[in-house]
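Example 3.2
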Amino acid sequence: MLETIYKVLHKLLFKHIDNSGLVLFRVVFGFLIALEGFGAIATGWVKRVFIDPQFTFNFIGFEFLQPLEGNGMYCYFMCMGILGVGVMLGYKYRLSMFGFAVLWSGVYLMQKSSYNNHYYLMLLLSWGMVFLPANKWFSIDARQTPAIASRSMPRWVLYALILQVWIVYTYASIAKLYPAWLDATVTELLMSSKKDYWLIGPFLQQQWVHYAIAYVGIIFDGLIIPLLLYKRTRFIAFCSSIVFHLFNAVVFQIGIFPFMSLAFAFFFFSSKTLQLRFFPKKEHYELAQVIVPKHSKIIIGTLCLYFIVQIALPLRHLAIKDDVLWTEEGHRLSWRMMLRARKGITSFYTMEPGTGVKSVYPLRDLVTQKQLKMLSSHPDFIWQMAQKIKAIEAGKGREVGVYVRSRVSINGREYSPLINPDVNLAEVPWDPWRHHDWILPSPF
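Structure, written as tokens:
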């Protein structure tokens, strides 16, 4: 029985198909990650996020990852841009892609004040592309080493990339199915910050636009992958993608993500169409050989494990007490994109043992305005700041407890207490898989 299953899987996954889509995606992906590296320097993002702050808020558990001193982060991002060019040209491809994946992992994990879902997607794609045969054609590698040149790739590559994209969009659609999104409260709040945009600012304040954005977002995210897979609706779906992602690029200004999303279309159009448009001199691969590698079971097992994790991880908040919109526990790594407007008022207090006297702790000289905004309403930032205060005061020879008073508003609702003010946050551990009782119950 098991052998029969493996035979079916071998035919399904290891049949070779034309690799035009993967090659084109490599070129665009390389260009975009190079743009991310160089652009982060040019726009001042590196300065704002890594150089100006006295310290960064890492993903908890990765405190050993710290920004390079002085202008080191400029060199860091310059290296990422150069590696992106290497990926785009297919030069020393695996080394270039591996180097970028390592450096981007550092960027992602050493700060979360500027968290975006597309940063996480870039992380997954970067590591995934390391193992894909994306340099077998239209690359410097293939030109310099003709022995590696190939017009084909195993079909599992295409399936894996499509499934990854489907997971992203499907979870993004499902996450929007809650009252504050369905009644356009969230989109109204999001658009209120865009009223000063040239030309389109007043247009974005209209109520019907808020409802249109809300429901088009749900429908687009939920249906775009099936529509791209179906030949008869593929072109219309692609045109809709162009409008949707360009709108997001202009209104939300989320960097390379809209353009990376458009590049996913290479996985859906037929290889003959792509070849005709982009590689007219390339001979189309027609052999459809089934080439089973020696390590086929490892490939199958790795893919199964990876996608089980990818499907399960966005659901982990269901196993954690209270509402993820309130606690933020299970929010990251779950494709919950632009789902809520969150703001708060938070004060930190220190108390020396035995005194019973709490003193307001001055934060403004320690953190940037952006960090202060995150500190005002996000429990994990609040906990990390408590640990930082404890360490700072310990360095001065003082042992202190750290207490917090925080009131938070979600989606324009009234401010409600978020943190138990009687808990010494400097002494409580962090558990990424369970609810923290010092986060007060949700008011809704």
